[in-house]
Amino acid sequence: MLRANSALSSSETSLAATAVPAVRFDGASMRYGQTTVLAPMEFAVERGTRVAIIGQSGAGKTTLLRLIAGATAPSTGLVELWGRDVAGLRPGRELARLVGMIAQQFDLVPNLSVLHNVLVGRLGEWSFGRSLLSLVWPREQRLAFDALDRVGVTHLAHQRAGRLSGGEQQRVAIARVLVQRPSIVLADEPVASLDPARAREVVRLLTDVTEEQGETLVASIHSVDLAREFFDRIVGLRNGVVQFDIPAFSIRDHMLEDLYEIEGLRSEV
Length: 269
Ligand SMILES: Nc1ncnc2c1ncn2[C@@H]1O[C@H](COP(=O)(O)OP(=O)(O)OP(=O)(O)O)[C@@H](O)[C@H]1O
Ligand SMILES: [Mg+2]
Description:
Helix 7 (166-180) runs parallel beside helix 8 (196-212). This protein has one domain (11-260): P-loop containing nucleotide triphosphate hydrolases (Rossmann fold), CATH 3.40.50.300. It has helices spanning 8-17, 61-68, 93-98, 114-119, 128-133, 138-150, 166-180, 196-212, 224-230, 253-260, and strands spanning 23-32, 35-45, 50-54, 76-81, 84-85, 99-102, 184-188, 216-220, 233-238, 241-247. The longest helix is centred in the last third of the chain and has 17 residues, at 196-212. The strands form 2 sheets. The chain has a 6-stranded mixed β-sheet, sandwiched between helices. A 4-stranded antiparallel β-sheet has the order 2-1-4-5, with helices on one face. Residues 1-13 and 265-269 have low confidence and may be disordered. The protein is of the alpha/beta class. The structure holds adenosine-5'-triphosphate and magnesium ion. Magnesium ion (MG) binds at residues 61-62, 104, 188.
């Protein structure tokens, strides 16, 4: 049994040595009433891997990510992060070190400045008192500015988040996860609101920054081309069932046709 790692970085070497996956589903499923939205799954993500989840609207992509994030408990089975049952992790600090999620709607606080929205990513690290002090904490502000710089929006630091465009909000949400520094980053349709050129830029940014920090990335994404270009593995979900789970380079058009139930789908979809 793994020790509770209050500082993940110090135990990362031993975790890697024992090859404990970053994420593991052991028969985890999700049901709402009589409806199964995610069938029992066996699924593992190795450290540092980038996994894209694709599938039609309603296939269960967000549900899968929420289970990894510990935002919802599975109806059956277990979800483990680094060998530890997510259900046993303390919400807040302990969970925030392991997993951070960029939600489908970004979850920024519209009336707060960009800077303060980014600082929310540090909350998992702090005691309550220090969290309150954070709004004037220069060291933390420097971290936030560094993150904003990394995603190219320092000039927006003092704007209210609610006034930003979709693409700008997306960058701020990435900056927030950068300062949180979880070992597993989840992104739910990170480029849904962007035009194709911006979408590519943002996916590149997300994969670059998570790679730099040695993080594991699991993202749901509608663009198969981006999944193929930037991710190691593609998982196809259909009606809550994993239809395929393969290296990104080996995906073929007929798999997509089946997944999306479309006739004669071309590779540019
Ligand atoms: N809290 C809930 N109560 C009941 N049903 C739910 C709940 N959350 C999700 N569902 C259902 O579970 C199914 C999967 O939803 P989910 O949001 O995971 O799909 P998705 O693949 O992320 O879709 P999209 O591409 O539209 O974001 C859907 O049919 C949805 O209606
Ligand atoms: Mg979704």
